[in-house]
């Protein structure tokens, strides 16, 4: 089985590999990664836009890799009332279907929200906030704001497992 992953982000790639191996889709799974466009804003600002970014990445990776499945992961933010939350979406594309799943959501601090509203992307904000480089490739905002209890890879791993569960279920139908 060939799994095409629509990203070069280390945390996201790790999430897909761990989830695919845990789901035991096949005895042998090969992975390819592609830097594909989400075709949404650099900083998605809704569930809808974040989900669409994941779908676009999954479909582009599937096509580019001529793979069995393509997986796309997208992080974004969304409003819940007057509070801005971190959100994430994942999509799994086959030649015939697209499956989607959403993951963990936590509120963002006011100072992070204010910077996002000024048009700054979350990645650079988190690097400055955490005084670290490339937070998005490692712990992610989720890792910083959960005090390391859940990192970005673990967050996306659960979302990918939801995709793979849908995919496996569908194969039985």
Automatic annotation (TrEMBL):
GO terms for biological process: nucleotide metabolic process. InterPro entries: ITPase-like_fam, NTPase/PRRC1, YjjX_NTPase. Transmembrane segments: none annotated. The keyword Ligase does not apply. Its EC number is 3.6.1.73. It catalyses: ITP + H2O = IDP + phosphate + H(+); XTP + H2O = XDP + phosphate + H(+). SUPFAM superfamilies: ITPase-like (SSF52972). Its cofactor is Mg(2+); Mn(2+). Residues 6-165 form the Non-canonical purine NTP phosphatase/PRRC1 domain. GO terms for molecular function: ITPase activity; metal ion binding; nucleotide binding. Keywords: Hydrolase, Magnesium, Manganese, Metal-binding, Nucleotide metabolism, Nucleotide-binding. This is inosine/xanthosine triphosphatase. It comes from Kurthia sibirica. The lineage of its organism: Bacteria, Bacillati, Bacillota, Bacilli, Bacillales.
């Amino acid at each position: 089985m060939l799994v095409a992953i629509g990203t070069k982000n280390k945390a996201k790639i790790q999430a897909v590999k761990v989830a695919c191996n845990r789901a035991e889709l096949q005895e042998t799974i090969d992975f390819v990664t592609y830097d594909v466009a989400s075709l949404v804003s650099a900083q998605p600002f809704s569930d809808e836009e974040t989900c669409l970014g994941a779908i676009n990445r999954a479909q582009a990776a599937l096509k580019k890799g001529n793979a069995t499945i393509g997986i796309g992961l997208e992080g974004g933010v969304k409003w819940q009332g007057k509070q801005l939350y971190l959100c994430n979406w994942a999509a799994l594309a086959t030649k015939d279907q697209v499956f989607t799943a959403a993951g963990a959501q936590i509120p963002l601090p006011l100072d992070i929200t204010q910077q996002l509203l000024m048009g700054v992307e979350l990645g650079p904000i988190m690097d400055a906030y955490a005084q670290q480089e490339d937070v998005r490739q490692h712990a992610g905002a989720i890792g910083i704001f959960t005090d390391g209890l859940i990192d970005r890879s673990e967050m996306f791993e659960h979302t990918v497992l939801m995709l793979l569960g849908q995919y496996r279920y569908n194969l039985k139908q």
